[in-house]
Amino acid sequence: MKTTLKLLVVLIILNFQNTLNAQDWETPMIEGYGKIVHYDEAQNQPDPSKEYKIVFHIKDGKEREGVNEGLWKIARLINLMGSYKVPQENLKIVAIISGTATPFVLTDNEHQRREQRTNPNLDLLSKLKQHNVKILVCGQALGKHRIDPTKDLNPYIEMTTSSLVALPTYQMEGFVPMF
User: Fold this and answer.
1) How is residue 152 annotated by DSSP?
2) Contact 104, 68 (CB under 8 A)
3) Of the four, 56, 71, 118, 144, which is 20 to 30 A from 125 by CA?
4) Where are the alpha helices (DSSP H) in the chain?
5) How far, in Å, CA of 93 to CA of 134, rounded?
6) Mean model confidence pLDDT for the chain
């Protein structure tokens, strides 16, 4: 009986310590998307005094937690930067969409017609635009997917001539590519 009681006490203490050490997932800037864990003791923390210029090339239609994985990663980056107090004006993000990711640029009605489901990315796209993320879609990808840029694009998307032109242009302007 004493051994069982001692074992139970040890297990309770260990569980309590693990609970204290556990980090909670959070979404401090883009609510509901791009979960992060904040660590005060981590190396390579963002510097709030620096400007971060990042261009994402989102060309895969793969989803994570119900939205496009590339958009989810942008939300995670914004959450990380905000968690370390990088001001929003120091974060310049551009997303260039092409390939199998292209259908998420559709309006909800057109997405429903083509994909037989509502566009799950619209809420996240809206939140990214509120954080000044510039979201461009490759005009050549629109052509391939037969998407009319004058009527089929959701309001968060702008068209660029081609990802082949936009990516190096942003890199020449000092944007670091994130793939």
Assistant:
1) S
2) yes
3) 144
4) 2-21, 69-83, 108-115, 122-130, 139-144, 163-172
5) 6
6) 91
CA atoms of 150 and 144, how far apart (whole Å): 15
- State both tokens at 137: 């879609």
C-alpha to C-alpha distance for 156 and 137, rounded to whole angstroms: 10
Q: Long-range contacts: 168-173, Cβ < 8 Å, 24+?
A: 170/55, 170/94, 170/96, 171/55, 173/53
> Residue for token digits 């309001």?
155
State the Cα–Cα distance between residues 59 and 97, nearest whole angstrom: 6
Q: Which of 16, 105, 91, 94 is nearest to 47 (CA)?
A: 91
Do residues 77 and 88 touch, judged by C-beta distance below 8 A? no
At residue 96, the pLDDT reads 98
Lowest mean pLDDT among 8-22, 60-74, 97-111, 124-138: 8-22
Report how far residue 107's alpha carbon sits from residue 58's, in angstroms, rounded to the nearest whole number.
18
pLDDT over threshold 70, residue 158: yes
**Angle subtended at Cα 8 by Cα 6 and Cα 9, rounded to the nearest 5 degrees:** 65
The whole-number pLDDT of residue 6 equals 57
Sequence letter at residue 103: P
| Cβ-contact 119, 154 below 8 angstroms | yes
CA distance 165 to 158: 15
